[in-house]
């Protein structure tokens, strides 16, 4: 049975950190599938539950996680590009955000240089960087670019868990299917332990035939994954502009409640244990 909590109650939950931090990547080969929105909300959810969360922005485009939650750092701050170019470590480019417990590895449009200059050894770079800085974090959240470039491959090679993103429209079912093969190759060649932990249907109306058909198809295609629907709300579109998670910008919005519930559903799948559980708070 699912518990129903208020936004303030969701914030009272607490998690126990694990010996090694899970690394959860959000992927889809297309833009506009809710990767950044989901990475920012889940980052904020797990930070609220007491974990030290780091969000890595792997997208060179506008409307990125770095625009949404800008690093609290001096102008001219270093970025993920400097890590790929061998100038800085991941720890050196990590900066706090306005959200307590949530830090960011920022990117700018200059990140595109990784794809044009192809620095050697990029595939294994992020795995090594996360390992070198492992003690400082309880959860790594990776927001990928809408393409399977070097940065995305490096992210997938470094991840323990993947959320495949889909937007409820016929075309996006194709997008989700398109991820299956590359993920299989990443698993086989670079990262045998990678798990497809969830398939997130963002901007979903739940009631249409299309939505129901998609749940059925995705459940069949990804039998081990949690297939989960996030409803539509214009508040999700507005939140980046105020540089706040939807969770705090519109706490009572169905989208915010959906991300709290999704976070709770991911807890056992990521291997976390509650110190203060939803059931305890609901009592
Ligand atoms: N639940 C939602 N309801 C309505 N719009 C949404 C929702 N989630 C995301 N969006 C909007 O959809 C667009 C794409 O989302 P985004 O998270 O930036 O995707 P991606 O990172 O995959 O490109 C953005 O304009 C975003 O505000
Ligand atoms: Mg994005």
Model description:
By secondary structure, this protein is an alpha/beta fold. It has a single domain, classed as Rossmann fold, CATH 3.40.50. 44% of the residues lie in helices and 18% in strands. The chain is built from 14 helices and 10 strands. The chain has helices at residues 7-10, 35-48, 65-68, 80-84, 90-93, 112-117, 122-132, 150-158, 170-189, 209-221, 234-242, 246-249, 254-270, 278-282; strands spanning 14-16, 23-27, 53-57, 95-96, 102-105, 139-143, 161-167, 195-204, 226-231, 273-276. It has an 8-stranded mixed sheet, sandwiched between helices. It has a two-stranded antiparallel sheet with strand order 1-10. The two termini are 14 Å apart. The protein binds adenosine-5'-diphosphate and magnesium ion.
Short description:
With 283 residues, this protein is α/β, with parallel strands linked by helices. It has one domain (7-282): Rossmann fold. The protein has helices at residues 7-10, 35-48, 65-68, 80-84, 90-93, 112-117, 122-132, 150-158, 170-189, 209-221, 234-242, 246-249, 254-270, 278-282, and strands at residues 14-16, 23-27, 53-57, 95-96, 102-105, 139-143, 161-167, 195-204, 226-231, 273-276.
